[in-house]
Amino acid sequence: MLEAAGRNANAITAKPGEGWGLHRMTPASRLNGANGIRAGGDGRIYVAQVAGSKVSAIDVDSGAIETISANGGGIVGPDDLAFDEAGNLYCTEITEGRVSMMTPSGQYRVIHGDMPVANPITYHQGRLIAGELRIGGRIMELDRDGGAPRVIFEGVPMANAFEVGPDGKLYFPAQGANEIWRIGLDGGEPEVVARDLGVPDSVKFHPDGSIISTQVYSGQVLKIDPRTGTKTVLADIGPGLDNVAFVNGRTFVSHINGSITEITAPGQTRPLVEKGLQWPLGLAVDANGHVLVADGGFTYLLRTGEPLQLAGMLFSPGFPGWVRDVAASGPDEWIVTTANGDVARWNPAAATSEVLTSGHDLLMGVAVTPGGVVFAEFGTGKVHAIEGGNVAELASGLDRPMGVAVSGDSTVYVAESGAGRVVKLVGGRKEVVLDGLARPEGLAIAGGTLFVADPGGNALVASDLAGGAREVVASDLPMGGPGGLQPVQLGGVGDMCGPMNTFTGVAVAPDGTVYLSADAEGSVLALRRL
């Protein structure tokens, strides 16, 4: 089927409330991220999308996108993919630690279910080979009938997208070593092919016999001689590159931000699919009106009239981890919650971060108070405060707490997503402030008004904290899943991050502009009173 309209539409279909204007601050993305890519027998590029939990196919001439395996279907969090001669599709499901197969008729089954951080996969002359993106990981040949696998090598420092070369050996990024290695398919000791790279995350062979390798940290695409290791820069696209595919001699590379780029000549590129945001998640605005956008493994600064500026990513020095929510705490300083269960203070300009507290169960919203920080712990139904370096429990027994916000009088407000309401914490008790919501998540307070992102109802709601008047700021918003359903919630990725649960953020700028995470289309929206 064709991609959902929200990720193909140029016009905003949402309805602003009376007296409100609505526009996109960032383009809507057509792909929920783009990870492994592979040319199919039909000449299209097939794309594995971890964030979108789906597989899509792209016509390389028209750019038309078709969903092959939808979010909520049999394949969960696919990272890489391969085809056999019968047209069966094999996917590594990185968050599930397994390898699955989908037949051309759409039947699904698990091939191997014990592969932590399953990532690279390739098919060569009847042999299905997959590997693990973890320190000490394995590369294995899998039995497509579900039998015991054969270990080719164990002890790889994070194997990523690989391919069998013309010499019959398997070439792969040893990402943790910043090198490319090769090994015979029957095992043995690996050899180093190339060193001192930009953190390679794919190795594919061009029809001319050269290696083409994307570098996730440097953002370069390298052309490497497999005999000598000599490398040249084929293109410089930007940090976050993921994989390579070839169609009729044409070279395409994927980016985690959902873009697909064709390299038309050395140093020359053209977009096939424009970049966007994968999720997005939490939002915060500093005193200068700069918006920080959390996009999981990436964070961006957004300024009016300017394109998104990368603030940090998982491979950046000092990055605090997979970021879910953010709060401004000072000039170029942010408080964040991470998928690893940390609350951290992060300064992207200085490339430093400090963990304020750790070991929590599914952290969600965070807000700054006059004396410290408050944050919601979804997994335990609690809200905590950090003051003077000490962590104290403010409330427990909450029903799936998500967003938190603090008013001018230091009252803490919490979105109980499971109960469909917002409560305030008063003397250890919770009092209902706003109910009748579907699944409230992000909260923000400005000028005595509480703003609530309700992806379950596809709406942004405002409430006057003094009088209780209620207003629908915008409806039919591209948030959450179709019809307000919650998107598939993904697990973690080894030691890199914990469960990648979604979070719909909202923030208010000093000028009154309300920013909203439109995660169903991968954009940030802005709403202003007319």
TrEMBL record:
InterPro entries: 6-blade_b-propeller_TolB-like, Vgb
Highest taxon of the lineage: Bacteria
PANTHER family on file: BLL1406 PROTEIN, VIRGINIAMYCIN B LYASE
Protein's UniProt name: Gluconolaconase
